[in-house]
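Write out the 3D structure for:
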Amino acid sequence: MSNTTRTKAATVPAIKRAPGFCVAFPLELQWAVDLGVGAAEEMLPYLGRLRLHELMRDSAQQLRRALLSGAKLVPEPPDARLIAASVDAYMAGLVGRLQQHLIAGMGLPTDEEAQDAPSVH
C-alpha cells in the first residue's frame, strides 16, 4: 500500500514474525481494536494461569458496561448497534493479537513466506 493510500478498515498492527491485518470493522472503531490489542498484550505473561475464555468474556462485559455508562453522560448517546460493534472490534483486536503470538511462537509461515514456498503439487 502506498503512503498516499489509507486503509478504511481497522487493523491489528504487525508484530515480529506475524503480519498485521485488517479486521472487519471501520476505521472509526480502531480505538476499540487497539484496546483489545492492549488487553491481549497485558494477558500474555499470565496465560498459563488464566482461564482465557472467562477473561475474554469478562473483559468484553466490562467494556460493554463502561460504554453503556458513558453513553448516559453524553447528550447524543450512541445506539446499541454501535456499542455492540465497539465490543466486537475490541474482541477482534484481542483475539487477533493472541493469534499473531501463536503464529510467531509456532514459527508458522506468513502469507508472504507461504507464497515463496515450493508447491507440493
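Residues 32-42+51-106 form one domain.
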